[in-house]
């Protein structure tokens, strides 16, 4: 399976996982939902090991721990940033940084794109901003604190993606499994510490479990895509995941899609075509 197809599966998986996870956290405490999401991901990975293998070498464990710690930082700061607002600033900054750093690392490794590929990458980054931005959250002022939080969230996302793609090629799913175990341990500790304040909240288990399963599909396919092709290509296509979250919100929740978001969706589609033909 080509890198572009795997990266697109990653984007769809992450986009749908974020949508379902977002709905689950609307209906219950996020600190009760996140441990379920992570635990489901670990079970899903366990079921996939017989098919894809997992070799827990030192390199795979180091990559997984780095991914888990970075992913935890990304999770916490994106949640804090979206609560702090404005979402129209926090979401695009974190998404673009989460994509552009792996993109830059790929170039540092000596990877490159054709002219068509560069045009597609540029269009993809613009599309991410357009799709992620919402003027509906204009009640929150743009502050230096919100921007800094969004940057840290983006760095966490980038670190996670680089971590799971940095393990040995023969490690199978090991880096993703180790990463999930690290993140899960941290979230379970937080949930226990906050249990008195969150224990009475309801949880939509179906949404949380669905989100957790698809979240690890996204991580696994990103890792596989980087083994099948260049990081500069994979990082850009995978980063288009917000487009699928926004599209689902329109179809399922009938949320109004703003004009710039529609433009971003069309731009994302065109970017994938350009990158696939580069």
Topology:
Blueprint: H1 3-27, H2 30-52, H3 58-84, H4 87-108, H5 115-132, H6 144-165, H7 174-193, H8 195-198, H9 205-228, H10 231-238, H11 241-252, H12 259-276
Helix pairs in contact: 1-2, 1-9, 1-10, 1-11, 2-7, 2-9, 3-4, 3-6, 3-7, 4-5, 4-6, 4-10, 5-11, 5-12
3D architecture notes:
With 278 residues, the chain is an all-alpha fold. It has one domain (3-276). The protein has helices at residues 3-27, 30-52, 58-84, 87-108, 115-132, 144-165, 174-193, 195-198, 205-228, 231-238, 241-252, 259-276. Helix 1 (3-27) runs antiparallel to helix 2 (30-52) and helix 4 (87-108) runs antiparallel to helix 10.
Which features does this protein show?
278 residues, single chain, 12 helices, mainly alpha
Q: Summarize the biggest pleated sheet.
A: none
- Summed up, the domain count is 1
Helix content bin: over 70%
Order of helices and strands: HHHHHHHHHHHH
Integer-rounded radius of gyration? 18 Å
Globally, the shape reads: globular
Count of β-strands: 0
Structural class of the helices, strands and pairings? Answer: mainly alpha
Low-confidence sequence ranges: none
Specify the number of helices.
Answer: 12
* Arithmetic mean of pLDDT: 87
Strand content: under 5%
Distance between the termini: 17 Å
């Amino acid at each position: 399976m080509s890198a572009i197809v795997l990266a697109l599966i990653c984007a769809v998986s992450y986009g749908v996982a974020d949508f379902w996870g977002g709905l689950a956290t609307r209906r219950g405490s996020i600190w009760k939902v996140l441990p379920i999401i992570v635990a489901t991901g670990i079970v899903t990975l366990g079921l996939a090991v017989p098919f894809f293998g997992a070799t827990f070498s030192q390199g795979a464990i180091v990559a997984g721990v780095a991914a888990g710690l970075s992913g935890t930082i990304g999770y916490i700061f994106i949640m804090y940033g979206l609560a702090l607002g404005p979402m129209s600033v926090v979401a695009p900054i974190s998404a673009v940084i989460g994509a552009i750093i792996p993109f830059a690392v790929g170039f540092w490794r000596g990877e490159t794109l054709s002219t068509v590929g560069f045009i597609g990458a540029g269009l993809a980054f613009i599309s991410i901003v357009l799709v992620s931005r919402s003027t509906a959250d204009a009640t929150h002022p743009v502050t230096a604190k919100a921007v800094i939080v969004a940057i840290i969230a983006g760095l966490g996302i980038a670190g996670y993606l680089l971590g799971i793609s940095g393990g040995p090629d023969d490690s199978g799913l090991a880096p993703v499994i180790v990463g999930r175990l690290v993140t899960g341990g941290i979230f379970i500790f937080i949930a226990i510490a906050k249990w008195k304040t969150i224990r009475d909240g309801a949880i939509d288990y179906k949404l949380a479990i669905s989100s957790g399963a698809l979240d690890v599909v996204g991580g696994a396919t990103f890792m596989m895509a980087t083994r099948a092709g260049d990081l500069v290509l994979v990082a850009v296509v995978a980063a288009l995941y917000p487009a699928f979250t926004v599209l689902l919100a329109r179809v399922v929740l009938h949320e109004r899609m703003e004009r710039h978001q529609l433009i971003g969706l069309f731009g994302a589609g065109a970017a994938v075509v350009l990158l696939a033909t580069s």
